[in-house]
Amino acid sequence: MSRSSVTPDQITAKLRQPGPKLNSQLTDRLPAPVREQPITLRLAQLRPYDRNPRTHLNPKYDEIKESIRAVGLKQKLTVTQRPGDDRYMISDGGNTRLQILNELYQETGDERFNQQDCHFVPWQGEINVLAGHLAENDNRGQLSWIERARGIFEAKRMLEEEAGESISQRELTKRLRLLGYTIDQSHISRMLYTIEHFLPTLPLTLDAGMGRPQIEKLISYRQFCEECWTRCADYWMEHADDLGEGEQWAKNVVDGDFAQAWHEEMTLLDHEGQTEFRWNIVEDRLKGMLNEHTGLHFNPIDMAWKNWFTVRKYARAATQEERDDIWTTVDSELARLRHPQERHLYPPKPEISPGRPSSGKSSDASGGAPITKAPGVNEGPISGGSDLDPDDLTFGDGQSDLSPPAAPPSERGVPQSGGVSESVAIKQMRAQLAQLEQQNAELKAQSEQMPVTIRGLGHGESDPEEDLLDSDGLMREHNPQPMRSPEEQATIAADLTLSPHHETEGHRQLRHWQAKEHGEEAIDFEAAALKSVPLQDGGPIAPITDLWHVPTWRRNARDLRMQIGEVVQLLASWAGIEASGSSEVIRLNAREGLGYELGPLEGAPSRRAQLVWQLLAGLEGNIDPMMPSDISLLGEMVGSHGDDSEVRLPDGLFVRVFWLTRLIRVLREVQQAEGDS
């Protein structure tokens, strides 16, 4: 039986029949490789690492971009893929290069920027990727201190979340080393300290690039302040049953919050674009904070400060005795705050026991040789039956201050080596010591304090001697605020105070102390109000007490530029212009020039913005001919002509414009002096 032959048409019909139906879903991409290998990817398939420690633009960004534009990417991108992600992610550094490739492809459309040969590594975990980025950026030296600190903090959080428990700094160092990132434990300690204590208080300074040496110094400053605060709190808790007159200071430090006091003080020193502090100002502000909260005088704080930093210089660890010696002056000051009227004399007074005979002879403290009254010593009975009062001493004719009166042994009734001469000498030494203390207090009051204003002289309102003393009979501390009539007080409050400003007593004492250290007299608002036009403003900028006087301790180029920058920032804010360390219109710069640099004012600026910009350009000596350029712009801002009230300077800014010109003049003088030297 012959087979039927298949015709070509039948074969064609069978070939055209559809195949079996596909039950699985179609995919538009291949799965990630399972092992390390090279791979070619398009830019659309790549994404940057979203937890990159670097938060600022690479300082060599433009240089890297031109190199890639010219010769392409020399080093392959290392990529990985998170589980469930549809794109590949940069693994061990390369976010800057990926950003540049995207920019170049958008600018040129060249496929050599779009198609990239990459090196794929399988996914191992979030902590591995973070450690890879930290190691890559750290090796290149491109991360700032705060960027590395944030990365270390995030790595610690990831490892603790993975372990389900907290880990020590030593353990963190070991685990990061296993992940390929080697860092010293002391660095980790400082970085975590920075995140905890400095980042909330000084974000602008840290983001500007403050480095490790500055951080280490700031850590030591904070540690001293915290240790001093704790020392005071421990003292008051130890004497909780007998606070004396120190109840207020005990409450301040025991119930107070050191971290909050530190934050409030240091946040005033945080400025944009600032990478280092003027440490003399920081030191003075912190000592003022301790004075204000603990009641300690500046001198014992300063002495403890010097001793504390001296001990820290030792290569070895300080002994407990050395650490206790640091706080000797602070402990003495705390005792004075507790009992301010108590006087400690040396040698100590001999105790007189009750029931002694009232005759001219008595036994000494050891019960040995009898003691008789020396000639020339006032007589009078005292409590307990003794007729010798150790606090009521006068000297006879021809008697020296320290030696006992010369009298025959028969008159003294005892041998020359007996206890009488010794006892009298001790009493005379104590009396001499009291006289010297009184003279020293009077000389100190004359040299350090101005005469206290006496109220009501000639009107019978008060006695001058009583006016110089307080309720306890002690000399009042000098108060620079003079007594004024109600009319003068009303004038000051209504006409000379543009906005109220409260200065704490601690800050006022600090200003006076700084002025005294530089041989000047500090100026206070109340004292200068009727002879100048001060500006008291409660904002972030310091109040203007005098429109002409610039303190000596602020007469240096950097400090003057910082003051100029503060005024410029206020003017710019009023005009609606950004003024900061990174602004392209008004960039603040405390290192050179007048303290600010001007860029073009683009767009459609308001009239107010044009006038402020041109005013600053005129002070800089580089005006824009397209904007108001004649002297009338000053008149329009001052308000001497023109009808637009929107561009007239408020009174506070009007005063600060004159203060700005004064600061610039002083800056020029300082620059010329430095040039001559």
TrEMBL record:
Q: Region annotation Disordered: residue ranges?
A: 1-27, 338-421, 455-487
**InterPro entries hit by this protein:** Chromosome_partition/occlusion, ICE_PFGI_1_ParB, ParB/Sulfiredoxin_sf
Superkingdom of the organism of origin: Bacteria
User: Which ranges are annotated Low complexity under compositional bias?
Assistant: 355-368
Q: Where is the composition biased (Polar residues)?
A: 1-10
Task: Name one process (GO BP) from the record.
Answer: chromosome segregation
Q: List the SUPFAM superfamilies.
A: ParB/Sulfiredoxin
According to its record, what are the GO cellular component terms? chromosome
Return the protein name.
ParB family protein
Organism, as annotated: Salinicola endophyticus
